[in-house]
Amino acid sequence: MAYALHPSGRSYLRVVRASALYDVLVTAGFATPWTYTLLHGLLSSVGDVLGLGALPALDPMQTLYANLMGSVVVVWALLRIVRPLPVHGLFDGVARALFATWQVYALAHGATGLLWAFLVVEVSFGVVQLLPWWRSRGSINEPAQQRV
Prior knowledge:
The protein is mainly α. 73% of the residues lie in helices and 0% in strands. The chain starts with 9 loop residues before the first helix and ends with a helix.
């Protein structure tokens, strides 16, 4: 069975852009102290209602780290929306592998079960963006080598 996505194809760039749109939607609320306070309350309520656990009480350091993560992810996502490049998918896939690793670590140490939903999306977009690079690792450089 042939794999449809190739890092240099238009379909792959659509995946890169889709992952960026997801990131903006999910992380924009983390980017400022005011929006994070609202999002924190919402996520805690949802976690309680679903029996997955609430978030820890807000404190200035948690808010700072949430704001830093939200700001960086939103800017990185905007780059991928405005100017998606194949290499952006590669780096985003690596970043998602790191995020997923730390989410698993947090879950293993008692974090709210709400993280499972985020973990599924991180792993999914990570696999979809990294697998084409892995499958085409020999063929990507072939045209450049043939020109020499």
